[in-house]
Design brief:
The structure is a single chain. The chain contains 14 helices and 20 strands. It is an alpha+beta fold.
Length: 514
């Protein structure tokens, strides 16, 4: 950042190594007719692997400079996890091959084998797995996106932090960092830190980012800093020194103007985990994201007894604007109640998809949901099997078959016809992983087999492993908690020699389907 072209008056071309060449350096250097070139090359390749064309202020336009293309006798691949080339515009890991590739790491055969791998496109040659993320442009030049180990998972989505940082650079903030923070337990958030001498217009920046990134990759907060904190040697970002975003410390806007706004302010604050929120405060600017938005809309529906789509919150993210969108007089959807069962019971939309895939591909383990439990202490296998059948009798979805035929339908078995057998086996600790993997790979025949299977593996005296295997057509990840809870309750009752006293279920899944 302190490079002064006047202090280096003798060269005509300056080559800057690294991915973070600031645009203002290129602009200052190019004014006198000199050329600035960005070069890329890890230590494992001599001496660089890629070099860009001459950079100038117009070509950069506030964005990070490209890595360019391969130098002579060098090959650059952008590959996915299966070592397949990814299309232009798609992020992948950068692999380097060619004459300048190192032989490996001295006295480090394990690390050498991990990083220097066979080149699938040139028989008998090797390539280096750089660990860098890159994206190939339509013109063949490469963009640097960060490190593979910067990939994070947030609310079920995999996020490449380098892509977020690249988009921030394109929006005029070349000095930036993006991390996932969990300052409140259970509320991880993507936060962007921007080097800026001026206050950041978060709303305007968020709108610009939504044109470049999917919603789940747009940071929940933006923090302006004079400079990014670095580690002691000044070479890396000091993530621990980055300050937490101060959502609650921001100046609140005006208070609620009426009862509707007052209720909405309370719901906003409750979902966001804040003491207060103003009528003009933006839900997403205070840490809201798609998962919290779903939760908030559910609370609004229940409180106001109205039907409101989730999209309404994205279009009207403040209490003031959302209050105007509450449909006057529109009541919420009818409550879920027991339905009259027709002769042909249809499938839900989610079941239709899984039924089609099952019919098209045949039985497979693709949609199995396993829950493995280690059980220490005395275990009564007969009581466990009886408890499993108590749970099957309680939940119709666990005793539902999907008959073969051209018309998708579900058939709920009577409780006396739905019998679940506990599969029992023995092995030692060394064979447990293989035994569990084999049990989890079971292929359900949904036309004649219950969508729940249980395997009990005896490991020794008072040591067992239980695998509950649920097919996705009968449940999802959220189903495992009530499944385990009901099984525990039923097993405790069966150990005492009596049937469990379950509270009646108000509805079954088939009622929802209808």
């Amino acid at each position: 950042g302190s490079l002064d072209p006047a202090a280096l008056a003798w060269p005509k071309t300056l080559i800057v190594g690294g991915e973070a060449c600031p645009p203002h350096v290129a602009a200052a250097w190019s004014r006198d007719g000199r050329r600035l070139v960005n070069a890329y090359g890890p230590t494992e390749i001599t001496i660089c692997a890629a070099m860009s064309q001459a950079l100038d202020e117009t070509g950069l336009a506030g964005a990070a400079p490209p890595l360019g293309g391969p130098v002579a006798n060098t090959r650059l691949y952008v590959l996915d996890a299966m070592l397949r080339p990814v299309p232009a515009g798609v992020a992948g890991e950068l692999y380097i091959a060619g004459a300048g590739l190192a032989r490996g790491y001295l006295d480090r055969p394990g690390l050498s084998a991990e990083r220097f791998v066979a080149d699938p496109f040139h028989v008998g040659q090797r390539m280096y797995r750089s660990g860098d993320l890159a994206r190939r442009r339509e013109d063949g030049q490469l963009d640097y996106l960060g490190r593979v180990d910067q990939q994070v998972k947030l609310r079920g989505f995999r996020i490449e932090l380098g892509e977020v940082q690249s988009a921030l650079a394109q929006c005029g903030y070349p000095g930036n960092a993006a991390i996932v923070r969990e300052d409140r337990q259970g509320h991880p958030q993507l936060v962007a830190y921007l080097v800026s001498a001026e206050p950041v217009d978060a709303d305007a920046l968020r709108k610009r980012l939504t044109q470049r990134l999917p919603e789940y990759m747009v940071p929940a907060a933006f923090v302006a800093l004079d400079a990014l904190p670095l580690t002691a040697n000044g070479s890396k970002l000091d993530r621990k020194a980055l300050p937490a975003p101060e959502f609650a410390a921001r100046a609140l806007s005006r208070g609620p103007a009426n009862a509707t706004e007052q209720l909405l302010c309370s719901l906003f604050a409750e979902v966001l985990g804040l003491e207060r929120i103003g009528a003009e405060d933006n839900f997403f600017a205070f840490g809201g994201h798609s998962l919290l938005a779903t939760r908030l809309i559910g609370r609004i529906r229940a409180t106001f007894d109205v039907e409101l789509p989730i999209r309404a919150l994205f279009d009207a993210p403040t209490v003031e604007t959302l209050a105007r969108r509450l449909p006057s007089g529109a009541t919420a959807r009818e409550p879920l109640l027991p339905q009259t069962r027709p002769a042909l019971l249809p499938l839900s939309f989610a079941q239709q998809r899984l039924w089609f895939l099952h019919r098209f591909e045949g039985p497979s383990a693709t949609y199995n949901i396993p829950l493995a439990l280690r059980l220490d202490g005395e275990l009564d296998g007969d009581a466990l099997e009886a408890a499993l059948n108590d749970v099957v009798a309680r939940h119709e979805s666990l005793r539902t078959l999907f008959p073969a035929g051209d018309v998708p339908q579900q058939r709920v078995l009577p409780t006396d016809q739905a019998v679940l057998r506990l599969h029992r086996a023995r092995c030692d600790e060394a064979g447990l992983h293989a035994a569990l993997s084999a049990a989890a790979a079971h292929r359900f025949d949904l036309s004649r087999e219950l969508p729940l299977r249980a395997s009990l593996i005896e490991l020794g005296p008072q040591r067992h492993a239980l695998l509950l295997l649920l097919h996705h057509i009968a449940g999802d990840g959220a189903s495992l908690q009530p499944l385990a809870r009901d099984l525990s309750h039923a097993y405790a009752a069966r150990r005492r020699g009596r049937a469990p006293a379950f509270a009646p279920l108000p509805v079954q899944y088939a009622d929802y389907t209808l």
